[in-house]
What does this fold into?
Amino acid sequence: QVQLVESGGGLVQAGGSLRLSCTASGRSLQFFNAMDWYFQAPGKQRELVATVSSGGSTTYADSVKGRFTVSRDNAKNVMYLQMNSLKPEDTGVYSCRGNTPWRTFYWGRGTQVTVSS
It folds into this structure.
């Protein structure tokens, strides 16, 4: 059974940093082509913030460009989201999603990030 599990969330002061991890089990990370990080603020819809392709190409939402960095380590079966210069508006749940070549998706349950002002 394929599972994605996020970790690394927590409470941080504004301007601080966190690194989130998304660990795959049941299959290698190479099972997925693109992998995504999604963000959902309280009371708002979930939105895509970062994507890393199987080849390592990355894209970001405008709200996180220059502050967040997504990467993947296929050998360790982990995708990362390095988050720097955190703002209170970055507070919410971060979830990872793996996209297969057959257009199916696997979601993690999410990890809470809280940025205090």
Observations:
- The two ends are 40 Å apart (CA to CA).
